[in-house]
Design brief:
The chain is an alpha/beta fold. Helix content is 50%, strand content 14%. It has 20 helices and 16 strands. The strands form five sheets. It has a five-stranded parallel sheet, with helices on both faces. A five-stranded parallel sheet has the order 9-10-13-8-14.
């Protein structure tokens, strides 16, 4: 049974939470920070429900201590509505969420359940890393999620076959990596793997790039050139972004696949080739066939073994695993950098939607390595737009689940936007107001309402 520690100076609050959760969790209570620090080592809670405003020591002090120790329990802050700023500070110190007093019992129960489920998920990932190491990685591809294990099964089946493969998925999901895995896991592993990005080569050059040309085939053809098909003979030819092929090239590719022969430009004799073709696209080829943009006969020829790669937002179990791998790889290259992800950083990464998928995550980790100078990647090492987007998505989820009322969410949203605008204008309220699309008077009213600190006078840009 999972363990929950309630830290609150009000006996009534402690007892009500204990009564609410005792059927599902093991509950321990502490009346303050000092008592909590005595309880935690032996009780080892999975979750701490923490009041911020207590007579002797603030709950923020406990958060700071847990952050310094690292690897501690998840923390949900219980805050009075008037203490929203303190709750925001608590989130920066690593709290996973906060509830305002008075809170609805159903909202509390829902939040506790969700946080502990996420904790279970993180532990499951760790378990899979230890116990299923042989299945978390396949020929360079990494993943412990159910979705990726299914992809691994398809890759293994495709690797042993000779038929064409079509890999689909959003940009950044690792389509070329999957193609290389099929090649490396199959009988052609020792033969060439040749990749062609059909979108990166002009149509006028792509035919020669694929099939080669004879000397004198066109004006600049000063010597014979071997095309990618011949270069890949005996091995694998990977055609990325195949949807970009023009109609005439689609026809020539179809003939090459059917006949296993190619014609060099300017050549007179067909040349036999032994090539395993793997194609990839981020577009809906079936729809393009229906619209007459892509040849149906070519589509069915390359779509013998389809493999769909899931976006990163649908395989969040792999996110921390991938981030740690990118950290390890980056540290090996740089010889320095953070060794792990801070708890708050992991939660921010999990809250983000990752439109750029694995490629975006790799870039974010590369940036964190370049900027980080401590043992862990902190939230501050992540791009500002990522932090903001993850925070906003978290707010929306909190409202939808009933953990946060709409007024509080709007207040926090406005607070973050105003802080950001003031930071970008060095405290110049006129320019900040213009940035936000409001008048300076409206901005000043909101600054006063939320009790936002102003820049020190010596650092402010003079208001116009």
């Amino acid at each position: 049974m999972q363990r929950v520690l309630v830290v609150d100076d009000e006996p009534g609050v402690r007892e009500s939470i204990r009564m609410l959760l005792r059927e599902h969790y093991e509950i321990e209570c502490a009346e303050g920070v000092d008592a909590a620090l005595r309880v935690i080592p032996d009780f080892e809670p999975n979750l701490v429900l923490l009041d911020l405003v207590m007579p002797e020591r603030s709950g923020l002090e406990l958060l700071e201590t847990l952050r310094e120790q690292g690897g501690g329990p998840a923390v949900v802050v219980i805050s009075a509505t008037r203490a929203v700023d303190s709750a925001v500070e608590a989130m920066k110190l690593g709290a996973v969420d906060f509830l305002t007093k008075p809170f609805e019992p159903a909202a509390l129960h829902h939040q506790v359940q969700k946080i502990l489920e996420r904790s279970d998920l993180e532990r499951e990932v760790e378990r899979l890393r230890d116990e299923v190491a042989d299945r978390r990685e396949l020929c360079g591809m990494l993943g412990a999620s159910v979705a990726m294990r299914e992809v691994f099964r398809w890759i293994e089946r495709a690797a042993e076959a000779r038929a064409a493969v079509l890999i689909t998925g959003e940009s950044g999901t690792g389509k070329e990596l999957a193609a290389r895995a099929i090649h490396r896991c199959g009988p052609r592993a020792d033969a060439p793997f040749v990749a062609v990005n059909c979108a990166a080569i002009p149509d006028t050059l792509l035919e020669s790039e694929l099939f080669g040309h004879e000397k004198g085939a066109f004006t600049d053809a000063r010597e014979r050139r071997i095309g990618r098909f011949e270069s890949a003979s005996g091995g694998t030819l990977f055609l990325d972004e195949i949807a970009e092929l023009a109609g005439p090239l689609q026809a020539k590719l179809l003939r090459a696949l059917q006949e296993q022969t190619i014609d060099r430009l300017g050549g007179s004799e067909p040349i036999p080739v032994d090539v395993r073709v793997i194609a990839a696209t981020n577009r809906d080829l079936r729809r393009e066939v229906e619209e007459g943009v892509f040849r149906s006969d070519l589509y069915y020829r390359i779509n013998v073994l389809p493999i769909a790669l899931p976006p990163l937002r649908e395989r969040r179990e792999d996110l921390v695993l991938l981030a740690n791998r990118f950290l390890e790889r980056g540290r090996e290259q740089l010889g320095r950098g953070p060794t792990r992800l801070a708890a708050a950083t992991r939660r921010t990464l999990l809250d983000y939607s990752w439109p750029g998928n694995v490629r975006e995550l790799e870039n974010v980790m590369e940036r964190a390595l370049a900027l980080g100078d401590g043992e862990a990647v902190e939230v501050e090492d992540l791009p500002e737009e990522l932090r903001h987007s993850a925070h906003m998505q978290g707010l929306g989820e909190a409202v939808r689940s009933g953990r946060l009322d709409l007024d509080s969410a709007v207040a926090e949203f406005e607070t973050e936007l105003i802080r950001d605008a003031l930071a970008h204008t060095a405290g110049n309220q006129t320019r900040a107001a213009e940035r936000l699309g409001v008048t300076r008077r409206v901005l000043k009213l909101k600054i006063d309402r939320y009790g936002l600190p102003l820049y020190p006078a010596e650092h402010q840009q003079k208001d116009e």
